[in-house]
Amino acid sequence: MQILDMDPIFFDPELAIYHPRQNELMQDDIHEYEHFKNVVATFYNYAADLKPEVMRLHKHFSKLQEKHLVCFKIEQRIKRLEQTIIVNADFCFLVVASYVDLFPDQDLQNVRVVADLPYYHTPNKQDISKLRITLKQFVRDWSEEGKPERDQSYGPIIKAMNKYLPLQKEKKSVLVPGCGLGRLVYELAHQGYIAQGNEFSYFMLLGSHFIMNLCNQKGQHTIHPFLNNFCNKQNEEDIFQAIKVPDVCPRETITENHQLSIVAGEFLQVYRNEKYFKFWDSIVTCFFIDTANNILEYIDTIHEILKPGGIWINFGPLEYHYASSFTDLSVELTWEELLKYVSLKFEIIEKHQMKSTYNYCPNDMKKLEYDCYFFVCRNQI
What we know:
Elements: H1 24-28, H2 30-44, H3 46-61, H4 74-96, H5 126-142, H6 147-164, E1 173-177, H7 183-191, E2 194-199, H8 202-214, E3 221-223, H9 236-239, E4 243-245, H10 250-253, E5 259-264, H11 267-271, E6 280-286, H12 295-305, E7 306-316, H13 335-345, E8 346-357, E9 369-379
Parallel strand pairs: 1-2, 1-6, 2-5, 6-7
Antiparallel strand pairs: 3-4, 7-9, 8-9
């Protein structure tokens, strides 16, 4: 992909809605600014950060004896890997192209293709892993291949919304904290709810903005999200599987009659605020509540910001995100303990256990499946 031949819309500074010049937090906090800049740099660096993978593969297979190479052609595999890395790098660049001014010392006029971009130094190597996860999240949220997984979790939630908060002449509001790339928010808004998503990760925020505001048609982009893992593959095609995104185009399906928004920030910091007290008709949490340092604070806040009689729908496991940390607070409760606390503030009107995967490759020999809790609660006064 020639950089100079790209649609100018990708470079439009007006579409860089998370840019530091529009963000007071980044303007006041140098650490937040540097974090955001590192995230953008990680998108730019995709091809460079994958080069060690190519070198590792070449180094290890070069040590094989000739007789070991009769069943596969390693040079062809490496060439194919290099080609698909470039495809992913082009996509990653488009997601953040409008933020190029964060690196004023680099001149894109002298760069012909994305793969030749200069390396934008970022000290946080964890961001490389987060970008790879984000690419898989595009599969889950915005591809035809991700539909079976969406049906496992989003399906019961949407069904419960229609049952307990049916659409009437007066539209009902729904908040989706931890909305990721925004597909569930989109689905609820498309049905007619006043839907707001909330997300903390800049990787997810940049990705959802790209899909919802910069994609012009269904299947516009191709990614190869499974390149970084060669384990438990049934055949080579599984490694290089091409995924078309998005499977629906929000710019074509969301009209001025729909109400959809996404708010950046940490859930408690944004919504534990008097202006949201008794504000929402419903709150939906999907694979979210276990991201808390203290899950009880999440429950308290949901109780406070729901209207009396409002509906809380939850789906997910208890994979406490800070459980392995010795420095961060991590309150880890069992489901039994959690539901006892929930019942102090809510009327539990429905609860089930449902199986669900999350961000898995459909053809992998190894699959992680959660036995999730799905419950519907009504907020008590």
